[in-house]
Design goal:
Helices cover 53% and strands 3% of the residues. The protein is mainly α. The protein has a three-stranded antiparallel sheet.
């Protein structure tokens, strides 16, 4: 029988990228911040922002001590800025409820604001070395191809954790390396388009390759609408204006950033509802 886990772990140790969160001495808080930032954002954009963030706020208590708007301001171009609010709220909860120490228990992590199943397990595994299956988009794709013989995974579901658990080694250090290795394999070799099968350590055992690379014919997740001209773009323009100013920005000043007044007002209302902007002194500011 093919040693699936052993092959992935050996490949990972020989080929893994040198990333900040994989270095010795990287803190659990740093791991948590990196996981927030890496959601839907490329590694190359995260690394410089992560280093700036941890220099400014090296502990949860440091971030909790500033207004949430400072987190939104520092988030800059990472996208999905509600993550900055959630990370700030998580820092407050860690400071108030856990003595400023990021918890290692999955249930305690799940109880923090803005933390879902993936992030909770990622912190427990990569910061503390605990044994849990971790499942992200890359891991789901490797399992779909190498194990299940499908070109791409079905939409996410609870079955994903069971599929990863079935492959996970019992030994804690090896299981952590396997989680990281599966993630790395999906990120740089078994990529969504043009997978590099010629250098894949699982090529000889890959069910999809053995089946002749059949096309995917299962259910697909919803495709996000294009960014250009969307409410997301308008929200981004408004937030950029608020970040650049340390005094309230008036409605007349905001009028110049987008020509469609109805869409602009809708985007502003959404920012206010999400807590990313607040009304103050006849204008609008970060919270």
């Amino acid at each position: 029988m093919h040693d699936f886990a052993g092959t992935v772990v050996a490949w990972y140790h020989a080929n893994r990228r040198d990333l900040p969160w994989r270095r010795d001495g990287f803190t659990p808080w740093g791991t948590l911040v990196s996981e927030f930032m890496l959601q839907q954002t490329p590694v190359s954009r995260v690394i410089p922002r992560l280093e700036e963030w941890l220099t400014r706020w090296p502990t949860p208590a440091d971030l909790a001590a500033v207004p949430p708007g400072e987190a939104v301001r520092a988030w800059q171009s990472l996208g999905y800025p509600r993550r900055a609010l959630w990370l700030h709220a998580a820092a407050v909860a860690i400071t108030e409820q856990h003595g400023g120490v990021v918890p290692e228990d999955v249930d305690a992590l799940l109880a923090l604001p803005g933390i879902g199943d993936y992030t909770a397990r990622a912190v427990a595994v990569f910061a503390y070395g605990n044994r849990h299956p971790v499942v992200d988009t890359n891991i789901r794709r490797v399992i779909a191809r190498a194990v299940e013989g499908r070109a791409e995974p079905a939409p996410p579901g609870r079955r994903d954790l069971a599929a990863m658990e079935a492959l996970l080694p019992d030994d804690r250090p090896t299981s952590a390396a396997f989680n990281a290795g599966m993630m790395e394999l999906g990120a740089i070799v078994c990529v969504a388009r043009s997978p590099r099968c010629d250098v894949c350590p699982l090529a000889d055992a890959c069910a999809w390759r053995q089946a002749g690379y059949p096309e995917y014919d299962g259910p697909r997740k919803a495709v996000q609408k294009r960014y250009e001209g969307s409410d997301r773009q308008v929200r981004g323009r408004i937030l950029a204006e608020l970040r650049a100013s340390h005094i309230p920005v008036t409605a007349s000043e905001l009028a110049g950033i987008w020509p469609d007044a109805v869409q602009r007002d809708r985007a502003l209302a959404g920012l206010l509802a999400d807590g990313l902007a607040v009304a103050a002194d006849g204008g609008y500011t970060l919270p």
